[in-house]
Amino acid sequence: MVWQDKIKQALELPGKFLVNGGHAQQAIPSQHRLFNAAGMGAGWWVMDQMRHIVFGLKMKSEGEYEEVKREDVPEPLRFLHKTIDWDPLSDSPKDQWKKLVYELFPGMGAGAGAVLGSMYAFELNGRAQQFKANELKGWDKLKLLDADFAAQYAMSKPLRILSGIFGTFSAASGLTFLYGLTLNPAFSSAAGTRVFRGSLSKGNLAPHRAAEAEIGMIGAYIDEAVKTGKVSDVWAQKFFDRVLEPLFGHELKTPEDQAKAVGTLQSIVEESYQKYNQNGRPAKEITEAVTKDIKEKLGNSGIDETLKKRFGLDPKKANFGNANPMIRKFYEAIGSPGMLKGGPEKQTSSSALPLLGAAAGAGIIASTVGAKGKSTSADGSADSDNATATQHQSPDVSGKTAEQYAMEALALHKAQYQGQGTAPPDLLKWIGEAELAVFPQHRLDCAIGLTAGLASAGNLAAIATGYGLDKKPVDAAKIPTFLQGLKGVIKDFNPKGLRSRDRWITYAQWGIYSLGGLLGVRAGSEIAYKNVKVKNKNPHYLEDYLPRVSMHQGDNWSWLSSTSAMLASASGLWTVPIPGLNYGLSLAGRTTSMQDRNFMLGGGLNHMLSGASTTSFMRLREGVNYMCHYAAENPAKDPTDIEYLAYTVLEPLFKDQLKAEHIQRFTEAVHEVRDHYWQPGGIPKEKREEALAAMREVFTGPGLEVLLIDVGLNPGTIQFEKLNGMVGKIGNVGISNQIKGEQIAYQHALEEHLSTYVAQGMITQERADWVKEGIALTNRGEKQPALAPTTKEETPPSAEPEQSKKFTDKVKNNPLEELVTLSEKPGDWRDAARLSKEKLAPAAIGG
Length: 847
Known about the structure:
Blueprint: H1 2-21, H2 31-55, E1 57-61, E2 64-67, H3 93-124, H4 127-137, H5 144-154, H6 156-166, H7 176-191, H8 207-228, H9 234-248, H10 255-276, H11 283-298, H12 303-311, H13 325-333, H14 353-365, H15 402-414, H16 426-434, H17 441-465, H18 500-528, H19 530-535, H20 542-565, H21 583-594, H22 605-610, H23 620-633, H24 642-654, H25 660-674, H26 688-699, H27 701-711, H28 725-732, H29 736-759, H30 765-779, H31 805-810, H32 815-822, H33 829-840, H34 842-845
Antiparallel strand pairs: 1-2
């Protein structure tokens, strides 16, 4: 019945799409992605080592650097040691330019390595050598299918370069979509595949490969003809759709012309069948003879002549490289159309490529210009007359939002460098910060997992069916002894057969193969981030709980990235910006979640995707850690970014509750600790360790909680399920109770901390009650307004500290008790934290 046939066809669609868009079976499955990632990692590592030598500094984390000693540098490279003298946390224009170079070093290596890795993949499978051989023959002497191959392969070159450019950026940059948008067509062009554009009947191969594949299938149709006495026209239609239409669609424009071409193909096959189906010839001999005859007429050696005689088509007028029209148009746009029309010619110079590369990312990146460093004052300028009469310059808070205050302060502090040179433009700063800052371990592990998973599952399926995905029989002698029992479990299977049974077994085989890839990517991703789960295992304070929320969300994103990794370039899903379908986007969601980072895109995209307020990738834990290093090592009296950093880490947590007064008070706390150590020219090197420790006492762990309460922000009212923008919302699917559980666990921990803070005189009982009230309101779905910062009158006296030896022993492993113990002086709690350093190390601090 008709409706039954329609149901069967609908059920087959997923299987057909999987066969069409899955990773082709090769000696090394998904080898292009593997070598691209391996080359990227190798290039990154080499240039990372070089920047360590050239700058004499190794970055341990954002804002934290360790010195590279000359004696640790290989002797042949010692002449390069510290050839660039750089203060990494200085805001001066010259140091900002050096910072940009430092950030770009490994990215350049990663990009070059990715391109070389991609090229090596095609050296390995022989297509690069085939292209070179065609060059030696001369473009004007190539046959039709060789010319199509040459044109198709040539189109991959500029795309490969662009993929190297976009591949240098981190997941937080948001440019992984553009990376996939260039890497996939680069592979598709060089590999000779056809990208899915809505019709599965078109297949997944370019004409030069499709011709060979379809001729390889003619035997199945001849076998059927021997049994039924009639040659099906399905093969002729497929050959037309997959070989002739991409090459001569501009010549065969009308339905009549197309039907005539299909009819001619059908006649060729029927003539051959009738010729060899005589005198009771065995079916096998008939099939072999017809296959050989069709190969001679429509294969690479004979198709040119056949097209002229039987179709009236001139091979020189073919549209070479037209399997993917959009890629072809792109190639023509950059100035190399000679390979594509009127016969293959030597490729011309792609002088437009650098401009195109810049333009490709400009639409996304340009919105970041001015996102950091813009003043939101009425005239857009930074006027020092707006500064208050305090020791440190800061804008007036009156009538300003938190964003306006932070950005105006940023512009105000930048003004101190006027006359000292021009700093890098905001766009270049953004590019530097968006570069791969760490070894691309996750990309590499996922690529390794994909290859291992595809190879393992593919081999198992091949042993069970007796055939590989390439339709070739498995060599029984190569099957391991422990897998001999699996051999031939699936009976009566012909991979080239036309029966429904054969098709469904093929779908199942591809399904097992692809499932192996999915599980391999999932395993690789888990291995890459196993340290994250260890680090987040035992949370105590706010900056411990928030990364756990991102981590849980990242677990969901792992399945999205693994699922999207199952399908290859031919699927076309890399053009669809939907998580779970697009591998680049899904991988970015997974990476940023596990790293607890924001997307850096401007124009509101960062807020939509990550809930971020600025184009910085840093969230609370990484942000306050960076701020501690930045405040301790920046030489200026008024570092440029303090208010900006405060706004960056606080706004996503407190949103509209955050006021300019809160940013001001938070910044004052930084200066109160910093001023104790600072001298003209910066905090002396011998005092930086002590200054950093004091900063960490105040801005991490219990200190951060007390500071937030002190400035009037209640950490207990942060709604975990609403964090991290769209990435968080997608990550919350199915685990909302787990995210809510993290929030409740933190609220309970905070309530326990409050009693200690009150007992030690760090906050008043009134403030503690206010925090508890906010927790209760939040859990009822109500909002609690923020408070104004604590006044001096409200600041409680310090309680008597506990001095027992037992307590002193405990504090070594308990940051909360350590901070409480050190808060021995009366007055503001920040003073106590600072002054405690004098007690611990008076010689280091000095007078």
